[in-house]
Amino acid sequence: MNPFSSIRREFNFIRTMLGTLKKISHIDPSSNFLITDELEQIIDQHENRLAFICGGQKWTYGEFDAYANRVANWAVSAGFTPGDTLALFSRNRLEYVAIWFGLSKAGVYAALVNDLLTGKGLAHCLSVADSKAVLCEPELIKIAKSAMKHLPEKLPLWTFDGEDHAEKDFDAAINASHDTRPDRSLRAGIQARDTLL
Q1: What range defines the domain where residue 101 resides?
Q2: Domains contained in the chain, number
Q3: pLDDT tens digits for 43-93?
Q4: Which domain CATH number covers 68?
Q5: How far apart are CA 4 and CA 177, in angstroms?
Q6: How many CA atoms lie within 13 A of 97 on its CB side?
Q7: 3-state secondary structure string, 24-60?
C-alpha cells in the first residue's frame, strides 16, 4: 500500500470530521431544540422538493410533514403522552421515517423493532422498550400476535394498509386525523440529550 495514499486518506478523514464538528458545535445536550425542530425547519425551507422515494411512491417534504403531523395528532387523540413508547414493527416503507418523526412531534418515542424477530425475542424487545402499542405491517401481524403470549399483558396492535388482521386500523385512524402541525408544547419538557428512538 502506498504510504502517501494512506496519509492523504487520513488527512481527508480528519478534515471531514473537523468540518462535521464545526457544523454541530451549536448543539447543547441540555437544549430544548430537538432533531424534530431541526427537521421542521428543513421542511419549511424545502416544502415542495422531493424528500422520499420508495418503490413507485414519492413524497415531497410537505407531504412527509403532513403525514407525520397526522401521526402526531393521532397519537395525542389515542391517549399517548410524552414519554410513552410505541413499537414500529415494519419492513422498509414510505411511511417508516414519517411515523417516528410524527411520534416525536408528540413527545412519544418510536421503538424501531427488527422485523426478523419472532416469539420470545420479539416479546422481550417490546417489553424492554416498554411499548404501549405496536404499529405493524400486515405481513408481520401473525408474528406480532404470536409474541403477545410471552408478555404479561397483551399490547394493542395497529395495522397498516387497511388490513383487518389486528384490533385497530392504523391507516383509517391516520386518515381521520388532521395534518396541521401539532403545538410544540407537546414536547416542551424534552431535551436534546433525551431519547429520540
Answers
A1: 31-187
A2: 1
A3: 999 999 999 999 899 999 999 999 999 999 999 999 999 999 999 999 999
A4: 3.40.50.980
A5: 59
A6: 13
A7: CCCCCCCCCCCHHHHHHHHHHHCCCCEEEEECCEEEE
